[in-house]
Amino acid sequence: MNLKKCSALILGLILIFALTACGEPESLSDNEKVKVISIDYAIPEDFKVLDEENKVYVTVDYPADSSKLVMTESKKTKNFLDMTEKDYKSTFDGQIKQDGKVAEVKVTKFDRCEVSGFRAINATAEFSFEKKTVTMKQLMIDADKSYIITFMNSGTTDRSAEIDKMFENIKIKYEK
User: Fold this and answer.
1) Rounded CA gap, 69 and 84, in Å?
2) Of 83, 114, 117, 132, which cross-links 87 as Cys (Cβ 3.0–4.6 Å)?
């Protein structure tokens, strides 16, 4: 399996997790009583739109630099923020394979935070694939829907600081 296929697999797992892992809401929370109008974020300068409809961004050097940003949204889920670091890691366990071997995913960051007053989780995970370390950073926001911004990087360029800055500066506009 090449790195592009691995990226597609990971992004598929993220979407599946966002859609199904946490169940249906039983009652409305305060966040469900608002409507998000926009989520404003600044894509790093050397990124371009690959797929505007699906909010996929890649570097200008893609595919030589396989860094990718993806914004997904899904129906709000009840226990979204009850997820633990162990739950997060378990969504990937056994799913990333190379030459019949399962890659071990290591969660290096799992922090609860807020984005424009909405509760969120900022997580980073790493795994080895084709002799490269793949880093995945995610910001998972609990608002009127579940919003997940995912960054994946397997290149030699360390983009951690610029992605962290992007995550820190995200602003959500909403109405009640």
Assistant:
1) 23
2) 83
The domains of the chain, with CATH numbers, are 3-175 (3.40.1000.10)
For residue 67 the two structure tokens come to 């860094």
How far apart are the C-alpha atoms of 35 and 76, rounded to whole Å? 12
- 63-106 residue pLDDT tens: 888 899 999 998 887 777 788 999 888 887 777 766 667 678 89
Q: How many helices (H) and strands (E) does the chain have?
A: 3, 11
Quickly count: other Cβ atoms within 10 Å of residue 148's Cβ. 22
Helix (H, G, I), strand (E, B) or coil at 172: strand
Query: For residue 132, is pLDDT > 50?
Result: yes
Distances (CA, A) of 41 to 20, 24, 105, 173: 26, 28, 28, 11
Chain-centroid distance of CA 106 in Å reads 15
Q: How high is the mean pLDDT of the chain? A: 81
Is residue 84 a contact partner of residue 73, using CB atoms and an 8 Å limit?
Answer: no
Q: Name the pTM for this structure.
A: 0.81
pLDDT at 156: 74
**Residue 92 near residue 84 (C-beta atoms within 8 A):** no
